[in-house]
Amino acid sequence: MRFVPSAALVRQSLASHSWLGVMAGAMLYLVCLSGTLAVFYPEFERWEQPGVRESTRFDPAAVERAYHAATTDGATHYMFIALPTPDSPRISLSNEKSGWFVNEDGSLGPVVKRDWTHLLVDLHLYLHLPANVGMILVSALGAVVCGLIVSGLMAHPRIFKDAFALRWGGSRLLEQADLHNRLSVWSSPFQLMIAVTGAYFGLAQLMSMLMAPVYFDGDRAALTARVFGTTPQLQQPAQPLAVASALNQMKTIAPNATPIYVTVEEADVPEKRYMIIGATLPQRLIYAEQYHFDSAGRYLGKVGFSDGEPGRQVIFSVYRLHFGYFGGFAVKMLYGVLGLAMTVVCVTGFNVWLARRKRRDYLANLWAGFVWGTVPGLALAAIAQIVFGVHGVAVFWITVLAAMALSQVWNDETRAKQRLEIAGAAAITALVVGHCIRFGAAAFDGVAPWVNGSLLLAALILLGAGLRRAANAASRNAATSRLAGGSIDSV
Description:
Elements: H1 7-38, H2 41-48, H3 60-70, E1 78-82, E2 92-94, E3 99-102, E4 108-111, H4 115-126, H5 131-155, H6 172-215, H7 220-228, H8 243-253, E5 258-265, E6 274-280, E7 289-294, E8 299-302, H9 310-315, H10 318-323, H11 329-356, H12 362-387, H13 392-410, H14 413-439, H15 448-490
Antiparallel strand pairs: 1-2, 1-5, 2-3, 3-4, 5-6, 6-7, 7-8
Helix pairs in contact: 1-4, 1-5, 1-11, 2-4, 2-15, 3-8, 5-6, 6-7, 6-11, 12-13, 12-14, 13-14, 14-15
């Protein structure tokens, strides 16, 4: 028996789909665009600070020397040691105050600077709001996307039948609607996965507040321990931290595991200090299994993310599934393409709503300025942060607001798109030139030339789109002038 939704259900679904999309459209656009770029954040981090020695091999003794060098002025409460991976073949240490790359001999290298990449990631995770508020808001958008997918499918009973119908070059409404619907159908499984996993990150805290009273008598610490493992209770003599001993033991404890980080907890309390070594496992989606060691490097046990309760394994698989950190660079490229499609769906959905309105007003101008001003905003923020060392968040938002204001002054969304596309191309080109001047020969080493080449390709695409839009506008104006001239001559 085939389910055929009634006309009333289709109308109600379309109405709810439209209002959900309108209310969340701007935020969804920022989250989707920044998330698409954030898939490549390891490459951006390396590009943002080229010239650092790179290798996937490391000496545990050198890592230990670097740790002790970083704590000569007194240990902080927490220390994170990032070990080299194929995505990021560098060793770095960081605490609450600063971070350093590690040289081959274990000495501390340059201070870590990843400010623009973190600006991009923070835009995706928090929309540059305070972390607690932003995370919950962005996660709620994941739930909104789930609603949009369901209501969109219900509102278009022929959506799969028309999966390859594209009415290009006709009315703006039909063109945008077809593009929106086709991309929605093709990428709906990906969108649903992103929405569900994205909703988890922020809503997990709210879920713990609801589940703790039901299952753990209100003890949220007990709930956290059940999911993320218990904290070792140690009473040990003060002694230097044996990082190398712990790393060397991993070859015996988990020979198939690949350590990717070391965290030092309670670093400022020698009696309670312990290490966590996070390691990936082949053919496993979990972010990492965690192995605990005391200060002397004695193995205390693992948490069990790889072979524990199914729920725990699922929770620790969310991160890689959401950001595409599995299956190598090909999967990341696929996530980039599908993420860009999801971004286009956000934009075209709002465009459809604007086209269906009976009037044209400031909303069309502001939307065009917001969408097309974000690209030069990110590029100018990168120039400010990377080339001049100026805080980039303010530059980004000032640029976006300026683009919206200019779009309103121009009062023509087509002209706004054309000019902002060209402005985006110019800003990206200036970023690449500034990056090469700032870093010199290092800008042509490692991953940097690939990132700069990709940025120049994006600039060329934007420039081509802007010039094509300008040419079309000139053709329309010329045709209008000819028609007006012919009318006058006939008179």
